[in-house]
């Protein structure tokens, strides 16, 4: 009798965590809704509370899992019920995802792992609220030597210095570059200034026999490749 009474007094979400973990172990990602995947992460940071409403609120606030993971800690903390531990845990998951994608590129020629490169750049840059200009430095085998953010600008402009990029390439012994920057507006279409800036970098690099393979613009709605658009073939 006491056992039955105890069960009646349990919160409605009692046992939910175990059941959700079992479903995940049995069916993997395909067996869970997005909010349930967020719940799995929140379980570790918020031990004694029904986190389903919080998971759904996070998806609503940030537009999806990608938006949640790429949100800054301060933004996550503004959502009612989010602890600092939970916010840090989400950022750790985002960081691990970014590291995993970069390691997948590994020592293989970057041009042969192009989609993985796009995936990495999307995770690293698509949700940034300011423009970031990064350069991937490659060796003669087109293997990645370094991945560096060269400049951080405003919502619609990043100052870029071609001589500094080329100097850094020489310091690293790089023979090829892939340029990447994001458009926080969501529209990845290149502007006139994007095109002219790319031309300047290509000319500065070509003078020292450094090749620019491509310039990618990343946004939340997709990406654009200068090479694919046919606007990369400037005369040095």
Give a structural overview.
- The structure is a single chain.
- By secondary structure, the protein is an alpha+beta fold.
- The chain has helices spanning 2-9, 16-27, 34-45, 52-62, 65-70, 73-77, 84-105, 114-125, 162-172, 192-206, 226-229; strands at 132-138, 144-152, 176-182, 211-219, 222-225.
- A hairpin with a 2-residue loop joins strand 4 (211-219) and strand 5.
- The protein is elongated.
- A five-stranded mixed beta sheet has the order 2-1-3-4-5, with helices on both faces.
- The N and C termini lie far apart (86 Å).
- The longest helix is centred in the middle third of the chain and has 22 residues, at 84-105.
- The protein has two domains: 12-98; 109-229, Cytidine Deaminase, domain 2 (3-Layer(aba) Sandwich).
Strand order, biggest sheet? Answer: 2-1-3-4-5
Number of domains: 2
Give the integer mean of the pLDDT values. Answer: 89
User: What is the approximate shape?
Assistant: elongated
Category from helices, strands and their pairing: alpha+beta
Number of helices: 11
Secondary structure: helix percent: 40-55%
Based on CA atoms alone, the radius of gyration comes out at: 22 Å
CATH class label of the largest domain = Alpha Beta
Uncertain segments of ≥5 residues (pLDDT<50)?
none
According to CATH, the homologous superfamily of the largest domain is Cytidine Deaminase, domain 2
Element-level helix/strand string = HHHHHHHHEEHEHEEH
**Biggest β-sheet, characterized?**
5 strands, mixed
Number of strands: 5
- The end-to-end distance, rounded to whole angstroms, is 86 Å
Q: Proportion of β residues?
A: 15-25%
CATH fold-type name of the largest domain: Cytidine Deaminase, domain 2
Supply the CATH architecture of the largest domain.
3-Layer(aba) Sandwich
């Amino acid at each position: 009798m006491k056992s039955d009474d105890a069960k009646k007094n349990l919160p409605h979400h009692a046992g939910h965590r175990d059941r959700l973990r079992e479903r995940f172990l049995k069916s993997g990602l395909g067996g869970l809704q997005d909010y349930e995947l967020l719940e799995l992460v929140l379980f570790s940071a918020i031990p004694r509370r029904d986190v389903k409403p919080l998971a759904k609120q996070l998806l609503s606030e940030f537009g999806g899992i990608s938006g949640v993971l790429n949100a800054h800690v301060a933004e996550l903390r503004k959502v009612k019920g989010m602890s600092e531990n939970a916010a840090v845990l989400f950022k750790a998951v985002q960081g691990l995802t970014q590291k995993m994608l970069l390691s997948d590129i590994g020592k293989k020629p970057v041009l042969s792992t192009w989609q993985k490169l796009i995936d990495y750049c999307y995770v690293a840059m698509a949700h940034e609220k300011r423009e970031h200009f990064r350069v991937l430095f490659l060796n003669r085998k087109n293997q990645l030597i370094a991945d560096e953010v060269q400049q951080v600008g405003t919502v619609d402009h990043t100052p870029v210095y071609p001589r500094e990029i080329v100097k850094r390439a020489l310091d690293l012994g790089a023979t090829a570059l892939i340029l990447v920057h994001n458009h926080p507006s969501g529209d990845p279409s290149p502007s006139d200034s994007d095109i002219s800036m790319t031309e300047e970098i290509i000319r500065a690099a070509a003078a020292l026999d450094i090749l620019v393979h491509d310039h990618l613009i990343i946004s939340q709605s997709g990406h654009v490749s200068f090479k694919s658009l046919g606007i990369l073939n400037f005369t040095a």
